[in-house]
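User: Just a sanity check before I run the rest of the batch. Below are the structure tokens for the first item. I only need the designed sequence back.
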């Protein structure tokens, strides 16, 4: 893990998605000669993606889902038309 003076600030701001990818994104920015704004945009995208993923997992857990995948029976059977009773 990178020991960078930015890490404590990212932790304080609860930007752990950026912490996880800072080193990788820094190398990518150097290799591709990204501007500072492009580099920041990559880090922000990582943070947004991590938060969306965590939110989805939290929702699934609260709903009692074991997996986000549908069971084979629910996807292979055609819908039956509704009939009046």
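Assistant: Here's the designed sequence for the first item:
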């Amino acid at each position: 893990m990178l020991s960078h003076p930015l890490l404590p600030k990212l932790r304080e701001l609860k930007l752990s998605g950026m912490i996880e990818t800072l080193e990788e994104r820094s190398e990518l920015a150097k290799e591709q000669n990204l501007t500072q704004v492009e580099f920041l945009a990559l880090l922000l995208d990582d943070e947004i993606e991590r938060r969306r993923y965590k939110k989805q997992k939290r929702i699934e857990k609260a709903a009692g889902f074991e997996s986000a995948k549908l069971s084979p029976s629910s996807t292979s059977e055609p819908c039956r038309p509704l009939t009046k009773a």
